[in-house]
Amino acid sequence: MAKPGITGMKHPVAIALIQMRCDPRPQQNLQVAETRVTAAARRGARIVCLPELFRTQYFCQSEEFSAFDLAEPIPGPTTRALARFARRLRIVIIGSIFERRAAGLYHNTVVVLDADGKLVGRYRKMHIPDDPLYYEKFYFTPGDLGFQSFSTRFANVGTMVCWDQWYPEAARLTALRGAEILFIPTAIGWPRSERGWHRSRKNKYDEKQYDAWLTIQRAHAIANGVFVAAVNRVGTENAIEFWGGSFVCDPFGKIIAQAGHDREDVLLAQCDLRQIDDTRRNWPFLRDRRIDAYGAITERWHDV
Fold first, then answer.
1. 22, 99, 125, 249: which is the annotated catalytic residue?
2. At what angle do helices 168-176 and 204-224 cross, to 10 degrees?
3. Domains in the chain, please, with CATH?
4. Is 125 annotated in the active site?
5. By CB atoms within 10 Å of each CB, which of 57, 153, 164, 165 scores lowest?
C-alpha cells in the first residue's frame, strides 16, 4: 500500500498504454501483449498498462455460462506471464484479469506487478454495469478491496476499471490513498446496431458520448491533482465497435498523449510527478475540502 504523497524525490516517469485488438484466442492475445509491452519498454516506458480483460474478446455482450471457463485464479497463468515480462524488462505492468476467486465467485480484477515481477496487489472492479451489450452483473461480483494505491519502483499507481471511471468518489478516494498516476483499463465503444452506426459516419450522439468519456476523466485529474491514463481496446467484436482513443492527461487536465480510434497503438507519455505538487499548490482543492460536511455522500438519495 502506498503512503500518501511519499515516493522519495519526485521525477519524470515514462508510461505506456497498450491499445490493442483482442482475438478470440487467449494465448494469441497474451503473445501480442508481450510483443507490445516489450516494444514499450524498449522505447523507455517504465510503467505499462494493458486494456480491460485483454486476454479475451469482450464476452459480456451476452450471458453465457460457458464464458466462466475463461476465468482464472490469481496467481495464475496470466499473472505468472506478466510477472515474467516485468522481471525480464524491469518495468511495472498493470494487467486486467477475469478472476476466479472460488467456485461461482468471479471478479473483474486488475493486478500490479512491480519491476522485479512481484505481485504488488490487486484491485477488484467496484462498479459493475448492467446495460445492453454490457451484462457484467451476470459475471462479476462487485469488488471488496476498496480503492487503493500501490507503491511501485517508479511511482504510486492507483487503478480503476471502466465503469468505475464515471464516479468522482472512486477517483477521489484512490487519490487520497496516495496515487500519483491513475490507470483505468477499459472496454468501451459504440454499438453496431439497427441504427446503422458505422465507423465512417458516427452520429452526433457518438461524438457526445466520447467527449463525455474524455471530460469525466480529465475532471478526475483536475479535481485530484493526479495524472490519469485510460487505455481502451480497438476493433469490432460482435455488436460493439470499440472506440480506442486511449489517452494520458496531466494534473491540469491537459491531454499529453492520445491514440486514434481505429488502430492499435503503443502510446507513450512522460509524466513529470513534480507537476502534482505544483498543481495542488495552485489549486488546493484537497486543502479546502469540507470533510465535516460530506456525511450525506454515503446516502443513496437525500430525501428532503
1. 125
2. 30
3. 12-285 (3.60.110.10)
4. yes
5. 153
